[in-house]
Specification:
The protein is α+β, with helices and mostly antiparallel strands. Helices cover 32% and strands 29% of the residues. The chain contains 14 helices and 15 strands. The protein has a 4-stranded antiparallel sheet. A 4-stranded antiparallel sheet has the order 5-6-7-8. Strands 9-10-11-12 form a 4-stranded antiparallel sheet, covered by helices on one side. Strand 14 and strand 15 form a beta hairpin. Helix 1 crosses helix 4 and helix 11 crosses helix 12. The longest helix has 18 residues. It starts with a helix and ends in an 8-residue tail after the last strand.
Amino acid sequence: MKKLGILLLVLLLTMGLTSCTDPEEVNNALNDYCSNNPESTLCTNPEAARDVIVSNMINTIMTEFVDGTNATFCEDYFAHDGLIDQCQNDRFSLVPENILSQSGDLTITALGNASDFEITNDCSGEDVCYKYTVSVIETEGIIKFTQFEYEEILVVSEEDDLGLTLEEVKIFVHYTINANVNSFTCEDRFTGTALTECGGDFSNMAPSNLMNNYNVSKDGVNTYTMTAESFDGFQIVTYSVIFTGTTDDYKMSSLSYVIEDNFNTETHLSVQLESFKSRYNSPSYSLYEVCDYFAVTADLSDCQTFFDTVKTNDITNIVIIENNTQFEVTMQFDNSTELEVVIEVVSNGSDTYKLDFTFGDITDPIDPVVTEITETTVLDFLFNLYEDYYANDGIICENYYTDSSLLPLCLTDQLLDMYPENEVSQINIDSLGSNTFYIELLVYFDEVIEYGYYYPQFE
């Protein structure tokens, strides 16, 4: 691992020499290094090419790491007591046991600054290679490690290609992330780092609601890209998958994903607002119910206040203007009123969405108002319901039921007992209080049906 320390030392000393660091401090740091490593190319031939210097330093520092010829090695290369103690008492816990047998050149990648780096070695031909994550700090012209970690990376070669078909990959991944059909454990489906990341919970690995319209392509040896989308098409996920094992027993050694959210678009907002308009204009829904269904929880009170002045008017037109990730919306009403609001579409869980309104300054928020329903109102409602049903051999469920448990039953024809084969001739109603009613239907031929369904509109 001292190989890696020298590589970073060279990079950062070079940057230090061209920065505002005091030249005398830099020279002192370099002199200290050369005192401990007099045969280093950095000291004997500082004009040599960078790769020549680094190659020589790696060999030098590896010797010191193994045989301990540099007595101050731990203090020279590690910045805080934790790493120094680990280096002094159990230095081989800092690196893999087979560190000396690793082959190939080192590749170093800066992680956005001059302090954090990822380092890998070209270990083709090896069963396993390693990725090191290190951080360094410069104090008084001396470079030291503040973080020093490594992880295994599985390496496969062309002869190890499992030859999985795209269909096999799709099925394997689907049956891993689909909680409804997954009867596996993490150990059944993952190995190596992926198994650690799974941690006994498949939800750590992939979203369970993005499983529609799979598309798989092969990128390399046992390496695949798979895209899928939510069932409503407003979210797309791209998976990167690596397999290992044999043709009879293979697992995923890596599974990562990126989600592209497409729900906050003008097209999707138009769909949401058309539904908003339909419910807002329907006499079956109160203003509270409309706001509760569409608005995020934090906007519920403001939504009622905002629309309170036009709650008895219908929306006639909606105009949308896109402004970056938000949309400026103008709602026009049948009394010539226009209201302007800024809206974003946000996710409310698996394939469900809410509208995040920005109303501006609103004072005097109001509490939900429950209107007392009279028996006459209920009777008129039921008269219209049955007249509609018998005249048209059915009804539009949304016109008569809210989103309580009854609407899904109506949509799936599970409320047919509510509609006697012979037409209803008389309706008797008894109020049970709190907008709840007991209903008795009389049909032709003197048949009496005691009917106990409670309409959500009247509760």
